[in-house]
Design goal:
The complex is a heterodimer. Chain A is of the alpha/beta class. Helices cover 21% and strands 30% of the residues of chain A. Chain A is built from 4 helices and 12 strands. In chain A, β6 and β7 form a beta hairpin. Classes of the chains: A alpha/beta, B alpha/beta.
């Protein structure tokens, strides 16, 4: 669970079953466990109207645990990019009464939220739970390139190579934290690089 | 002068009977200038000088927000109410100089919505007159479902149908026509916001069904215009102003405070906006909370009261005002 620092820094909750007719879960990696934990408090038949979309990640864990929930639909995707068309399609055809649950890394929650916002769901109406890695999705404020899975402070922009201070300043529109050059005055000045978002 | 309710000097420019219960009033600025702009769903508080009494009632602006040469309100006559609507019907004629507050909007459209679904009951149609005009002017997507007792009491139903055609759906109680609410709510595209204005029973019914069908609370908007309920007279001590006042049976606590020269802030005078929230210093008796603002915990605590609609029965009450 990420600590709140500045006002744009997202804070996440704990998934809880909402009233509604259809339930759409989007999760990656350890986010599966948030769904499994929530399932213990869900009313009987809850998953009969549920769809789970899951990105297992490299180690491929937790697929069986989610299958065991016997949701109406269960879909496994290799990356967020690969499930994007499906997610957009689902939301475009959805009616009021669909509830959205996002669990896992901040990158996953932020990007799924971005798609859902465009589809008309207010961010305060979504259930979110952060689980697993603290890795950040970062936008370089200089070249505007997005670098995924940033775990260090400072971090190198994958696009322009600048050394960036990863700020808590978060853009919901981009689903990314802002990275600002940390040694603009003197490029030879390289502060120690630490693993702070494991 | 109360917070957020700067006043406007207006003259009644027209009075138009609409049906057996409803009359429409038009106001223009006395200096001939344009009135302040407003957004659909806004209301003004109309000051009525009724003998030695000043009545202050909120009414929704029902004209188009695109035209601020005049403000229009529609008043439903309530023969057993506290007298404000009767005063409007009997004593307000063209040419009368009156004072109204600046517009305040506690029932605004959420313009992020992809679609606006509106449900009106009876005189609850008035805020939707302005909201539909606003949306029609900007190409917004809306649908209005309007229930009324009989066709002749379907205030502005003809106007709305002529303006918006199939986007308006009417239901008449005397023909046993009912909104198929569950089906209506379940068939709305994602990103729809719901707006309801009408009798309390209707508002509660719609909010309850919407919540059960999975509509997030942030997408459900409603407007109560609960008039203050009469009750037993009671005495109140106001600690800051050092006054002890009596609240009459037909008077609200807020009105009694105003009559005593205390000027608490207000916006809605209907127990929803929170402006007049007042701390209770001490009490011996029981509160009759009629508001929709304070939490149940606040109500139980005995520490707060909304003087616009809530009352008290008991031996003593001291408020911080």
């Amino acid at each position: 669970m990420a600590a709140k620092t500045i006002i744009s820094r997202p804070i996440y909750g704990t998934l809880s079953p909402q009233p509604g007719k259809h339930h759409l879960f989007v999760a990656d990696a350890e986010g599966a466990l948030a769904i499994v934990d929530m399932a213990r408090t869900a009313p009987p038949g809850f998953f009969d109207g549920a769809e789970i979309v899951f990105i297992p990640g490299a180690d491929g864990k937790h697929v069986a645990a989610l299958e065991a929930l016997k949701s109406a639909q269960f879909h496994v995707a290799p990356t967020f990019a690969s499930l994007l068309p499906r997610l957009k399609q689902t939301l475009a055809n959805a009616h009021m009464g669909l509830r959205l649950y996002l669990a896992g890394t901040e990158g996953l929650i932020g990007q799924a939220m971005q798609v859902a916002l465009e589809a008309g769901i207010d961010h305060t109406s979504m259930q979110t739970e952060h689980r697993g890695s603290l890795a950040r999705r970062m936008q370089c404020v200089h070249c505007k390139g997005i670098t995924e899975n940033v775990t260090t402070q400072p971090a190198t922009c994958a696009h322009c190579g600048l050394l960036l201070l990863v700020r808590d300043h978060y853009s919901r529109r981009l689903a990314a934290f802002q990275g600002v050059c940390i040694n603009a005055e003197d490029r030879s000045e390289i502060p120690p690089i630490e693993e702070v978002f494991p | 002068m109360s917070t957020g309710t700067t006043k406007l000097d207006v003259v009644v420019s027209d009075v138009v009977p609409v049906n057996e219960l409803v009359t429409r009033f038009h106001f223009r600025r006395r200096d001939g200038e344009l009135l302040p702009t407003f957004s659909g769903g806004a209301h003004v508080v109309v000051e009525m000088r009724d003998g030695d009494r000043t009545r202050l009632n909120p009414y929704s602006l029902m004209g188009s927000p695109l035209d601020t040469r005049e403000y229009t309100i529609s008043v439903r006559r309530d023969d057993v109410g506290r007298g404000g609507s009767l005063f409007m019907h009997r004593s307000v004629n063209p040419g009368l100089e009156m004072v109204v507050s600046y517009p305040v909007n506690l029932f605004s459209l959420d313009l992020r919505a992809k679609k606006h679904l509106m449900l009106a009951g009876g005189i609850g149609i008035t805020p939707f007159m302005a909201q539909t005009a606003q949306l029609a002017g900007s190409g917004g997507n809306f649908e209005l479902h309007y229930t009324c007792r009989t066709a002749s009491l379907g205030t502005y139903a003809d106007v709305l149908q002529e303006r918006y055609g199939r986007r308006v759906r009417l239901y008449h109680d005397d023909r046993d026509e009912r909104i198929e609410l569950d089906r209506l709510l379940s068939s709305q595209p994602l990103g729809t916001h719901l707006y309801v204005c009408g009798p309390t029973g209707m508002i509660n019914w719609v909010r309850e069904r919407a919540a059960a069908l999975g509509w997030p609370a942030e997408t459900v908007h409603y407007e109560h215009f609960a008039a203050p309920q009469p009750g037993l007279p009671f005495d109140v001590t106001l600690a800051v102003s050092g006054k002890t006042i009596r609240v009459g049976e037909q008077q609200s606590l807020l009105e009694a405070m105003e009559a005593a020269g205390v000027d608490p802030p207000y916006l809605c005078r209907g127990g929803v906006c929170g402006q007049c929230e007042t701390n209770v210093v001490s009490y011996d008796g029981k509160f009759i909370h009629n508001d929709h603002w304070l939490s149940e915990e606040d109500h139980r605590s005995g520490c707060k009261i909304m003087p616009c609609v809530s009352r008290f029965e008991g031996k003593s009450l001291v408020l911080e005002r």
